[in-house]
């Protein structure tokens, strides 16, 4: 039987971690300068990549990490460092260069992973799948995963309307703000990873 409590708990957890409203300015900053059709496609691609990564780790998470001898804190630190590099590009304006805006598919990295499908989301899903000991709770867990990705797609898909309102100057401002937010997220992720390493030691 479908467990509404399990669904609600995991959905809220993933909503806080994946942060659809917070992703919006970062998505706008990384996709600015592209045609609207390409931006819509990238919103869909980013959600598909995130869902694919989350689904794989949900099914095989512990086996993958054990096989690679990678700890969760190491995954958090690596993800944080990658996000920090992207944040520095946003802050310094390097994403405005033609090569950055047209040749690189940011829907895959950093949007799909590690921004959406980051260590926090991956670990939450691994734990939720492990705790789901019946068919009903398993269905509830996967329904929550699908639901949060639908929310992410809707938010990014319709955030493109914002670009038409704020114009080019606004996009530059949003880009710098997104860089600040992303750098804070990255540093916090690294701190969390290091803290877990110290506690484990």
TrEMBL record:
It comes from Streptomyces himalayensis subsp. aureolus. It is a multi-pass membrane protein. Signal peptide: none annotated. GO terms for cellular component: plasma membrane. This is UPF0056 membrane protein. Keywords: Cell membrane, Membrane, Transmembrane, Transmembrane helix. Pfam families: MarC (PF01914). Belongs to the UPF0056 (MarC) family. The chain crosses the membrane at residues 6-30, 42-65, 71-92, 104-129, 141-163, 170-191. NCBIfam families: NAAT family transporter. It is found in: Cell membrane.
